[in-house]
Amino acid sequence: MSNERKLTTASGTPYAENENSQSVGARGPLLLQDFVLHEKMAHFNRERIPERVVHAKGSGAFGKFTVTHDISRYTKAKIFNKIGKETNLFLRFSTVGGEKGSADTERDPRGFAIKFYTEDGNWDLVGNNTPVFFVKDPKKFSDFIHTQKRDPRTNLKSPTMMWDFWSLNPESLHQVLILMSDRGTPHSYRHMDGFGSHTFSMINAENERVWVKFHFKTRQGIKNFTDSEAAEMKSRDLDFAQRDLIEAIDSKNFPKWDMKIQVMTTEQAEQFPFNPFDLTKVWPHADFPLIDVGVLELNQIPKNYFAQVEQSAFAPAHVIDGIGYSPDKMLQGRLLSYPDAQRYRLGVNYEQIPVNRCPYMVSNYERDGAMRVDGNGDDSPNYFPNSFDDIVADQTYKEPAWDLGTGVADWFDRNGAGDNDHYTQPGLLYTKAMNDYDRHNLVSNIVGAMSGIEGPKREEIINRQLCHFFRANAELGMGVARGLNVNIDEVMSHLRHA
Ligand code: HEM
Residue 97 C-alpha to ligand 1 middle, in angstroms? Predict the structure, then answer.
């Protein structure tokens, strides 16, 4: 018997003709009864699913996480419960603003989304390659993203929209400076760090809670493109980062990152000089040093991009026992947004798609819905409580109560007194974290980007943004103003009156 497989329809019926449609005479019209023709055309017409509304362009790989240090005093999460323990994972990198076919080398943050397949369920850490973000309230997310996408009239990217928004939102400055530095154009996904970015919590076996931030330090070393190198690569190879990742893993040059955490006690959080749950700020490393946890390795390229990368779905809501949320407003917003997006993008049963499916136990009373393909609970009861099955709500998984110190519900100003310093950390980033080379490139990248601002509000937007740069650091403000040929005296008078 030959090993050849027979060509079949989707319903498994072998058929003989896959190139010629059935027609009346060699040159005549086609027959409706050529079902294979319909099936092929109809399936093709439905090949596209909605791309992710953000982070549409991405690359993924499977790998493993290995514990190297004991952090059980902070968390009871089983993934961390033994040195040497290995957990399988899937990681998807991405750019943010571009469409599915856009260039990998765009100036943009990069997504760094990890799905850990742990025995207590899938833990998704859906972070970026930057520790902070542009806004600190989820209500502002869609407005911000609109400015990064296309102009409604021209369908072009618009520096005017971007800088208009940023100049009106001083809380964005910290992330804008990172984006405008060469860190905004990483060489490839392998040569950048990853961050959980938000403040999360960890809960230990004694039910004590601490606040944590997650960091992933690249072992490949940080490597960035300059603005012109990134532009050059864009024209040479649109998919450079995808190619780089595949080539590295195919040649067994497995990329690795060291996972580290910062820890803040609840008492320290109360004494902290600013809001420790503000996503536009970092926790100073001098006060909250990095603690070693383990190493993450990528070692397998998915066999099928659509099945495993395009259909992957990450959700910040997916935490596991021993890891919890925090009052970070952005995180709170994201808890709702991702599963909602995925029900739309992939359908209500998206958790059953193999890349998303928990390889351990899933037992609940959710039933039916489009594309239910896992047996739908067979003949087991579909209601709770019941007298027939053995599913229990295990109280040992209950999180300790939170004392959040306020019972007042209101629309609080996210930039109220004590939360309105938008300039100290960007200033430190410029003076302390960057060297002369970084600073030079930062200014030239900003000048290049802001030169694209156009229209009747050009001067107003530029002046407003210059005020933010000056407030962070006078030299930075001067450098950008000079590059844009702006009259400094005029800006300074704005600054005095602002
Ligand atoms: C309120 C703020 C935010 C909202 C509402 C939001 C919403 C979304 C949505 C709807 C998606 C597409 C999900 C999908 O279709 O699977 C997405 C993707 C993503 N977001 Fe956010 N986002 C927010 C902030 C952030 C922040 C702060 C980060 C990083 C720290 C982040 C990182 C990502 C990543 C990495 C992806 C791609 C995940 C993947 O590879 O599938 N987002 N976001």
Answer: 11
Atom 9 (ligand 1) nearest CA? 338
Residue 407, pLDDT score: 81
Residue spans of the domains in the chain: they are 58-134+185-352, 424-497
Which pLDDT belongs to residue 287?
96
Distance CA 256, CA 22 (A): 55
Q: What is the pLDDT of residue 483?
A: 98
Among protein residues, the one whose CA lies closest to atom 37 of ligand 1: 55
Rounded Cα gap, residues 122 and 315, in angstroms: 10
pLDDT at 157 over 70: yes
**338 known member of a binding site:** yes
Residue 180 has pLDDT above 90, yes or no: yes
Q: Is 55 in the pocket of ligand 1 (CB under 6 A)?
A: yes
**pLDDT(406) > 90:** no
pLDDT band at 158 (very low <50, low <70, confident <90, very high): very high
Is 54 close to ligand 1, i.e. is its CB under 6 Å away? yes
Q: Which pLDDT belongs to residue 405?
A: 77
Say whether 440 is catalytic: no
Q: How much distance in Å is there from the Cα of 338 to the middle of ligand 1?
A: 7
- CATH domain 58-134+185-352 topology: Catalase HpII,  Chain A, domain 1 (2.40.180)
